Amino acid sequence: MVKNKYLGVAWLTFCALIVGSGAYLWWHAEHRPSLTRNTAHLSADATNAAGSNQLSVNSSSLSNSIGQLGTTAGQNPGGPTSTKSAGSSNASLPDPSTFTQYDKYKDNNQALFAEIKVGTGAALGVNQQAAVIYTGFLTNGQVFDQSKADAGGKLQAFVFTEGAHQVIPGWEEGLNGMKVGGVRLLIVPPAVGYGSAGKGPVPPNAVLVFEVQLLEVK
């Protein structure tokens, strides 16, 4: 009789442990933080902790829009789940005088990007060489760096290896996965730019804006 009593208690304890473990695993799955990175079309303001660093374009009323990219009549604005206008060859660089709006990203810990023009060639990956031409702006619209031109006025490509830390972290984050022939607008906060020290014409704690065209990947 005593033996059966102990067996009953042991069985009830075992069942309680099984039920408790299942409940804990369910709660943990529901409440664990997202570790997804570079997932497109999430709201940048809600927030980049969710892992998105791609912003939509041509939708100034949306919280995850980067601003007023140029469009032509009849173009369909891109929203959180649309990149029609982003991939249009008619899309153009925003007016640099509007770049002060990007100061709101000063405290971000990763770069943001939007497709001004989606490329159709090979995608840039880690340990690959990229040849690009670019222009770098401060948020007051001032150009602080750009591709150099040769004697004939032709812009010379800047070459770097993705993932080799040859450029600022914001470039490596913002250009990864970009396709040849494409043009991206990068918004680089200080944490992945030149930080609290700045560098040369870049003042301390500056948000940087780049227009980058990918010419070649090898």
Label this structure with key terms:
218 residues, alpha+beta, Chitinase A, domain 3, 2 domains, six-stranded antiparallel β-sheet, 2 helices, 6 strands
Order of helices and strands: HEEEEHEE
Total strand segments: 6
Task: Give a quick account of the main beta sheet: strands, pairing sense, barrel closure.
Answer: 6 strands, antiparallel
The proportion of residues in beta strands is 15-25%
Helix share bin: 10-25%
CATH architecture of the largest domain: Roll
CATH topology-level name of the largest domain: Chitinase A, domain 3
Given helix and strand content, the structural type is: alpha+beta
Contiguous low-pLDDT stretches (5 residues minimum) are 24-51, 58-90
Q: What is the general shape?
A: globular
Q: How many helices? A: 2
